[in-house]
């Protein structure tokens, strides 16, 4: 099996065990442009849910402090909407990483891989 495909798949599958660390290490130490490209994409798709989760949970915390609880009408709607959007993005990017990892392992050539 091609080493490039294994490193590409490892970049995406690392969302299961070391989300940000493995793509950064692969990006730094890889010598192939193909591998660094996929490591950058994997790193981006690992960082986005982290930032979204931080914003969401800080919003919940601030809403609780400012309004005296989560039962204020407008703040509950905004915080709830932000929580749902964050949850959808985290699940979507998790599935995206798993699918991309499987594509990397199953692809015969670079032309078979999209993005």
What does this structure look like?
The chain is mainly alpha-helical and 115 residues long. It is built from 4 helices and no strands. The chain has one domain. It has helices spanning 3-13, 21-29, 33-67, 73-106. Helix 1 packs antiparallel against helix 4 (73-106). It starts with a helix and ends in a 9-residue tail after the last helix. It holds the Pfam family MamF_MmsF. InterPro entries: MamF_MmsF (IPR019109). Its main location: membrane. This is DUF4870 domain-containing protein.
Question: What labels describe this entry?
Answer:
single chain, 115 residues, mainly alpha, 4 helices
Principal-axis shape: elongated
Strand content: under 5%
Elements, N to C (H/E) = HHHH
Question: How many runs of DSSP E, i.e. beta strands?
Answer: 0
Major β-sheet profile: none
| Poorly predicted runs | none
Mean pLDDT: 81
Number of helical segments with 4 or more residues = 4
The total tally of domains equals: 1
Radius of gyration: 18 Å
Level of helix content? over 70%
Distance between the termini: 21 Å
What class do helices, strands and sheet pairing give? mainly alpha
